[in-house]
Automatic annotation (TrEMBL):
It comes from the Archaea. It comes from Archaeoglobus fulgidus. This is Uncharacterized protein.
């Protein structure tokens, strides 16, 4: 499972936290998870204005980009959690071992 996750998702997932623009997109996209879609247009406008006023030469963030980012992010983390549940099942039921981690319950998205 680790090899699969590393090969497919690790570098992209880590890279997005070292790119200021992507961090801002991530923060705005989290408003979907928090059930505050109404704040997304305001947050996009504030972010774009901040970039402009502070001399960042970034492409403007769009609502479509934020939605796409959120869907991709939700997929990655849902897949990761489900793979951890499979790992827990194999370890505890098939191999009769202990699973050392507590996994979260259902996450509303």
């Amino acid at each position: 499972i680790r090899i699969l996750l590393k090969k497919i998702f690790l570098q992209d997932t880590l890279d997005r936290y070292f790119d200021f623009r992507k961090v801002v997109v991530d923060m705005i996209a989290n408003l979907y998870k928090e059930g505050r879609e109404d704040l997304i247009p305001i947050a996009i406008n504030l972010a774009n204005e901040f970039f402009k006023l502070n001399g960042y030469d970034f492409e403007a963030i769009t609502a479509k980009e934020v939605e796409k980012y959120y869907k991709e992010d939700a997929f990655i983390w849902s897949l990761y959690l489900n793979l951890r549940k499979v790992h827990r099942f194999i370890l505890t039921k098939a191999l009769f071992g202990r699973y050392e981690y507590i996994l979260p319950g259902k996450i509303r998205r």
